[in-house]
Design brief:
By secondary structure, the protein is mainly α. The protein has one domain. It is built from twelve helices and no strands. It has helices at about 30-55, 60-85, 95-115, 120-125, 130-140, 145-165, 170-195, 200-225, 230-255, 260-265, 270-280, 290-305. The longest helix is centred in the first third of the chain and has 25 residues, at about 30-55.
Length: about 325
Amino acid sequence: MTMQNPSESVPAVLSTTSGPESHSTVAVHPLRAVLLVMAAVFLFACMDTSTKVLTGSYPPPIVIAVRYSVQCLLMLAILAPSQGRRLVQTRRTGMVVLRSACLALASVIMAIAFHRLPVAEATAIVFLSPLLVVLISGTVLKERVGGFGIVAAIAGFAGVLLIARPGAGLDPLGVACALAGAVLIASYQLMSRLLARTENTIPMLFYTAMIGSLIYGLMFPWFWEGRLPDARQAVLFICTGVAGGLGHFLFTAAHRHAPASVLAPVMYVQLVWAGLLGWLVFGHVADPLSIVGMLVVAAAGAAVALRAHLPKAALLPE
């Protein structure tokens, strides 16, 4: 799964400069921005659904290797001619590489989760990551969490318990992988926030695709079973990379037209797309308690995102 941080306020602005991005570059066109984000999270849900289909025939590292390779090649073809050396220029390269490796590991763990769980349930569990960021940011980023953030995080965990409760019929290993993916994505998001003051979005996106391609490219011979994809599988392989790359591009472009505070709650539309695609492709419909759990996770995350950007005067004392 590919997921941006719904709770962070860093604008992902397409920039050709080598310095950090600025909030002043955001032009306010909220409807256009919301539509771009809805399209982006739809593409992310399509990527996750394609991953689930492909992992039924191929080992997860093979699926992720192709996805990152297609994404990396697309970025080279589209951005390298205009960006040149700026595509790889970073100030804190070590942390940028660590951030990319963290997401690469999360990707293969989530591929296993999607193989073993319905798309909607796996997606909902991973959406715990913004709430984990809220809890960890007090220690790592020295940010004030407050009672509201703690309550929202507890509510999010309660929602996950409803989804993964005994008797829900979910695979325990799949649930464990989804939870591990949430932890890794939370780490990725925390590093994104730490890097936001010094790094541009485009190089960080490119490093993510490049590091993923290198890691899983090296693993490819160990997992390749010699079975070539048929026409349908080849299209799905290509679509995973295109959907991931284009989804990131649209999400980045959206922040040129509206601040993150407007767009953060829209990210949770991905749960709707995941549920719809899970029904259309696999015929899976979540049971009522699982749907309640998904709504609780989405409401808790959206509430944290909205509250983080309310004017201080509008907030009641905690």
